[in-house]
């Protein structure tokens, strides 16, 4: 299926107060193909599998879908680069983890799921939020801790959520979201919804004990959960081979089947997620190891070049970049011209800049927000100002 | 200018920090290292806090061949540069990276210490210590007791940066010390400055009990003072009276000392004489020093960054009320973090800032 994610994004939040910015990108530039005729493309590399038969390498797509992939990934790329500058300008405080390089995972997964399926991830969550139909203004407002943010400015970079799209967010502690994902899947199964949960974690989190606890429960109760290991090869500043005896994360489930997927190839991701969804509904958990790469450091305090060479990063950019791969496909199949894609990127740049400007206008949360949402009635909290005889209040 | 003022504070051997000043800890490792190298006359070099910790770790590894340093990313210096150069000097068998698995790190450290080694484990942020909570509380703290002294893990020291940093948000700012103060068998130590950090860390590493050592991450680069170059230890479970005073006793630890220090100075302008005490070790804590002070002043204020309810300030208030009931002239005042999760925005609202402390000092003195 996979309609253009951006189109859905516009429709997704009609009722939401956060949809401040209408996205001006609904009409593609004139010559870009909008065809829905099926197109078969082979994935870059074959899948590797563990106790399961891998899906075929031939992926069916359409020109329209490829264009939407290109556009969505470019929006994400641009947004992350903009976030980098905002952080350096100290407009974003706190911790900030960027996703650029890994866009194909979020976009490919979105193409294979519906919004009734759940997604839960760790703190590198900006683009997963965007893929689920998140609004750019709400994203930037959240990054800057503003009132119109997707978590009302109370979460920040690591804590994006989108309930109407079943995006369970943004979790700060490495690996802690994985058992949560199994709980989501249990509820889905119990309600006989025929939906699944995509439960994301990184190669660093793959060594956390609770992952294996969750895996056992998921397998034991045949939960419709897909454990997606986004393997970007570095757990913070430590290369995977320094931290993992077996970096074949798709085999780590032992009794749980797994697939290794080229996470830089959006079509391969789409195919694998579609396969995994069907598999999980029928048989219980499966692991998808997405072989991907982050161009930025782990967080903004990590230059990302002390534990790996600049050549390595440049090499990946040149050989495996997910956006460039789709660009090449569009050009070789004559679905768009170089100039048209460039124009599209220019437009996206403008769109992101507009969103940032809008987000900057959003005010800080009201100071009383400090005390809300701690408990359901926010009882028992008290606060006092400098002269507490005057300002001391016990909030309701 | 701020840095200069801080260095001067350092020379006077006080806790040095600019609370309220927003300063990132992540941007300029090189610049900070430059500061650390600056030489002054007298007994030692001017060092910032992370360099003092680094020196202590060098000494610990140098003086005991059975000591080990490990944790997430420590091999290349750690996110706060506390372990810089250790792997090169002492080799990858003694200084090494672990996977990202805090429970595993703590459990592994308990086992290593149980074989008579000094296991110095790092949990990258105190906010990440909770997966290791079980190992620390149930395994480390009770090993000696439940084996009737047959076994112990006394060589265990867990280092972890704690506290606010200006913009850390929910999971890089918490102060979880009170959780560990509820566990007999553990020691909890928090230094306030570079000199203190070096001496207390060496004492903690060499103490025959498992120690949780929280380092105030706000001060890693901000606090600079003269630190003796030699190997020295400061006694655990011994509070220090930093300033003598007669009107009210202020008790705190770690980064909060700098806030209390500023409040003391401002209170002095209003003619209030504060006695300032750094508790240094939270459990087992030095009740006598605090009691003696409160017996003299008749008033007590405790201040910490952690939320007020169930914080360690409550324990101090209760104990001192018990011991000094007849001599107390006002209720014990607590100026602490608010009972909310650590906020992303409005961190300054949450924090027990100087003005809040000053206000409480006045309210208590004029009770």
UniProtKB/TrEMBL annotation, chain A:
It catalyses: N(6)-[(R)-lipoyl]-L-lysyl-[protein] + pyruvate + H(+) = N(6)-[(R)-S(8)-acetyldihydrolipoyl]-L-lysyl-[protein] + CO2. The keyword Oxidoreductase applies. Its EC number is 1.2.4.1. The pyruvate dehydrogenase complex catalyzes the overall conversion of pyruvate to acetyl-CoA and CO(2). It contains multiple copies of three enzymatic components: pyruvate dehydrogenase (E1), dihydrolipoamide acetyltransferase (E2) and lipoamide dehydrogenase (E3). Its cofactor is Mg(2+); thiamine diphosphate. NCBIfam families: PDH_E1_alph_y. One of its GO terms (molecular function) is pyruvate dehydrogenase (acetyl-transferring) activity. The keyword Aminoacyl-tRNA synthetase does not apply. This is Pyruvate dehydrogenase E1 component subunit alpha. Residues 71-367 form the Dehydrogenase E1 component domain. It comes from Oryza meyeriana var. granulata.
UniProtKB/TrEMBL annotation, chain B:
Keywords: Mitochondrion, Oxidoreductase, Transit peptide. Its cofactor is thiamine diphosphate. It catalyses: N(6)-[(R)-lipoyl]-L-lysyl-[protein] + 3-methyl-2-oxobutanoate + H(+) = N(6)-[(R)-S(8)-2-methylpropanoyldihydrolipoyl]-L-lysyl-[protein] + CO2. SUPFAM superfamilies: Thiamin diphosphate-binding fold (THDP-binding), TK C-terminal domain-like. It is found in: Mitochondrion matrix. This is 3-methyl-2-oxobutanoate dehydrogenase (2-methylpropanoyl-transferring). Its EC number is 1.2.4.4. It comes from Oryza meyeriana var. granulata.
